[in-house]
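Deliverable D2.4 — example input (structure tokens):
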């Protein structure tokens, strides 16, 4: 039975992945550096070291990451000061529901502590998270399972009692490797067949996690999650062919949704 819910941050709780991408692309234009979405996509969910490695591999060892990062941080900070933190739909509703129903709530983000805490404070959701694990606390970041296993240990819950909420491929892989139930809420990249083989479900917003949790009368078995796509079938952002396992899942989800409403 799920007793703890572990949140990723960027791209899941806050729409900061789009904002950061815009910043990097504008910096690239300013300095004549070919920074593109295609270059940035593989970095989603990775720890800082992984992002630096990709920049160096694609743009050369002389790429001044730390110097240009200062410009990126300034761009993002100014945008947030002018517009506020871009909170994802359903976040506050889900956090309040989890609190009211006695779930333990944790944060497991690749972002370093100072910036993550700053974002949580601006969004006014910091008090919900009694346990927080940051990228600078972990030697091996996502897609390694370390960050989620460390979070579970801090919570005092075994992996099978933890639900991971993620938007990135690396995050889904890390949660799956940790032996936890994973729900994907896609942000900049859609779920693929690989993700569907590792997740309990894929939903378009955080508020739709609530019906899933209300439907859990039996402990969800991660080993029972199987791919629901045949080879060669097309995948859309939130839809896939309705095979038997998905039909059962949707039936339980629909019943729970009616109850929640």
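Example output (designed residues):
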């Amino acid at each position: 039975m799920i007793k703890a819910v572990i949140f990723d941050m960027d791209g899941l709780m806050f729409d900061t992945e789009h904002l950061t991408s815009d910043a990097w692309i504008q910096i690239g234009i300013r300095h004549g550096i070919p920074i593109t979405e295609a270059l940035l996509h593989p970095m989603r969910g990775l720890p800082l070291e992984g992002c630096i490695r990709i920049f160096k591999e694609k743009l050369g060892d002389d790429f001044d990451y730390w110097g240009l990062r200062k410009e990126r941080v300034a761009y993002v900070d100014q945008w947030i000061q002018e517009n506020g933190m871009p909170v994802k739909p359903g976040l506050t509703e889900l956090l309040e529901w989890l609190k009211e129903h006695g779930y333990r709530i944790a944060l497991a983000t690749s972002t370093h502590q100072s910036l993550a805490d700053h974002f949580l404070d601006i969004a006014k959701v910091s008090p919900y998270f009694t346990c927080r694990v940051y990228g600078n606390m972990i030697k091996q970041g996502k897609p390694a399972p370390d960050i989620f296993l460390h979070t579970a240990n801090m919570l005092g819950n075994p992996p099978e009692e933890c639900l991971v909420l993620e938007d990135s491929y690396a995050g889904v892989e890390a949660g799956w490797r940790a032996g936890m139930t994973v729900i994907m809420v896609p942000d900049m990249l859609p779920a693929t067949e690989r993700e569907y083989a590792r997740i309990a479900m894929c939903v378009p917003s955080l508020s739709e996690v609530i019906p899933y949790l209300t439907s859990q009368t039996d402990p969800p078995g991660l080993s029972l999650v199987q791919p629901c796509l045949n080879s060669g079938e097309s995948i859309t952002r939130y839809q896939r062919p309705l095979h038997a396992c998905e039909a059962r899942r949707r039936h339980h989800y629909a019943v729970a949704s009616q109850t929640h409403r």
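The longest strand covers residues 104-108.
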